[in-house]
Amino acid sequence: MKYIICEEPGRFILKEKVIPKPKKGESLLKIDRVGVCGTDIHAYGGSQPFFNYPRILGHEVAATYIEGEAPGFVKGDALTFIPYFNCDQCIACKNGRPNCCSSIAVFGVHIDGAMAEYVVIPDQFLISGQGLNYSELALVEPLAIAAHGIRRAAVNSNDIVLVMGAGPIGLGVIQFAKLTGARVLIMDINEHRLSYCKNELGITSIINPNQDDVYSKLSQLTEGSMPTVIVDATGNQRVMNNAFGYMAHGGRYVLVGLQKGDLTFNHPEFHKRESTLLSSRNATREDFNYVIECIKSKKINAKKFITHQIQFDEMPQRFDEMFSPENKVIKALINF
Fold first, then answer.
1. Does a cis peptide bond (omega within 30 degrees of 0) precede residue 54?
2. Rounded distance, CA 256 to CA 335, Å?
3. Rounded distance, CA 116 to CA 21, Å?
4. pLDDT in the model for residue 291
5. How many of the other CB atoms lie within 10 Å of CB of 226?
6. Which of 48, 130, 168, 265 could form a disulfide with 43 if both were Cys (CB 3.0 to 4.6 A apart)?
7. pLDDT tens profile 97-135
8. What residues contact residue 205 under an 8 Å CB cut-off, 6+ apart?
9. Quick check: 135 and 303 in contact, CB under 8 A?
């Protein structure tokens, strides 16, 4: 079978090896689609935390069931899977939070991922496709990340939610925040993505830090109250640090984005607001099932995010296209 490995930052190589054999409790899957996400781009660029080289990337997956004995699955079934392999033994796992397992192995980050024609996956992580097509299934994982962030923030219809970053995860956050009935504001410097939010998602409260004084614009849009929930989906240190000053009193700040540096904020300002700071890591089976139900019921149109597709064999030569601003990529899929 063919696979593509990132040997070092900036270098992909197409190679071949034998098709893996599943052991008891595992299943063999044929990969059909892999979504390109910020984790892959940062790994390729050498700026992804928790990462070692060489590594096969890819964790946003749509696949076909080929071989195994997983209950409820037969050969030919379309499916996806939870790409965060947890230990079931640590305190987080025992408390129902396997997404932040202390010894988690994320597929395509800590261990080799889905940019291969076939993979072997433990049965416990498989998710039935439930009638979704392959393109929709490839979007379930990133949408689950977004849904988990909104669930962490306990967003409700009384909230004003500021979403910082209009990449694929941020766009998902917007969609799930809207489903709660909350009012949603978006901040980004990419005019194409801001236009997408306005024209495709109906977001009219838009802030561009290159053009607006952020604090003044937020005060204007919220009539002085400021956002009750802030969700970072940028992974940009400066943006993340600045946002502490944008919160309403009693506000919640959820970090979905990830960067390598320190967070810094003024303690008295944070304290007087009785602010809540939360990180949001990965997603749970509950989030995956919620996303699938939202797609099935047409509350979410996953395919709307897909703007670019490339063939697997072309990926090493064309990967740079996936994050070139002039190509205006929202979400790219690799097709096998």
1. yes
2. 27
3. 14
4. 98
5. 20
6. 48
7. 999 999 999 999 999 999 999 999 999 999 999 999 999
8. 183, 184, 185, 186, 221
9. yes
- One-character DSSP codes across 58-87: --EEEEEEEEE--TT--TT-EEEE--EE--
Strands 306-311 and 331-335: parallel
pLDDT, position 49: 67
Whole-number Cα distances in Å, 184 to 123, 162, 164, 173, 238: 38, 6, 11, 10, 22
What is the Cα–Cα distance from 72 to 82, expressed in whole angstroms?
16
Query: Cα(61)–Cα(27) distance, rounded to whole angstroms?
Result: 15
Beta strands in the chain, from DSSP E residues, in sequence order:
2-8, 11-16, 26-36, 60-68, 78-81, 84-85, 105-106, 118-122, 126-128, 160-164, 183-187, 206-207, 229-232, 252-255, 276-279, 306-311, 331-335
Cβ 304 vs Cβ 312: under 8 Å = no
**Tokens representing 302?**
């996953």
Amino acid at 102: S
